[in-house]
Fold this sequence. Notes:
The protein contains 9 helices and 10 strands. By secondary structure, the chain is α/β, with parallel strands linked by helices.
Amino acid sequence: PFELLFDGAVEAGRDLPASFSAVYPGSWRLPQRKLLPYVYVNFVLSRDGRVSFNEPGHMGGADVSGFDEHDRWLMGLLRSRADAILMGDNTLRVEPDHVWTAEFVYPADAASFTGLRESEGRVPMPLQVFLSRDGDVDVRAAEVFSVDEAHVILATTARGALRARSWPPTAARVDVLELGAESVDVRALLATLRDTYGVTTVLCEGGPRAYASLLAAGCVDDEFLTLSPIVVGSSQELPRPGLVEGIGFPAASPPRSRPLSLHRAGDLLFLRSRYSFG
Length: 278
């Protein structure tokens, strides 16, 4: 089990079943949102604030966490409560063999995660949603497009939608949403996910630019950070991305969160925080 260091969350909503809270103690209730889905993000962060080594073969967050089992289990839990999982298209290029489900990331507890989805009334597989300004996605190289049960949504611009029309047929169902001229309107995307697809919970798993766009739109509720003890560093020759990239927030009004809970497993800390946008 995770060690609970503090839990200051006081909120209404559906909590975890006892079998899950025995592993991840404390509460994680799903709040009800009126206009947009409940949006939460999950990243692993090095001691110096980096999310990737940005080297071939070492692009993902698993290298930053040291392939930690608790981190992978928590990722499975977060995915199991998501109606949709949102990523930037670079995440798809970095991890072409990945499928964004709890069962894929932590197969040892696949039955438990599947049961949790069923008990909360979710479809077996979350929507796989990708932000892409240009529609530059190789559907033949990405595993998720070959999964019959997958429902993929490409949120893109007019330019990206035009490009997506030339994609070859895929086993997965693919919907293309044109949501902007030069950039994707993420607030409109979230509203469409809720109104058209019945989505009430959205997990964002990256990357730093996708997270930045959600923050800039004031659409993030909770942030789950795995805090790794390693130092990654960065240089001009080998830049390593931080948690948020592509947007600089003004000093007078940056996004601000407050801690809700802190867990520990080995040398890693697991922090959950809540944003409050006006």
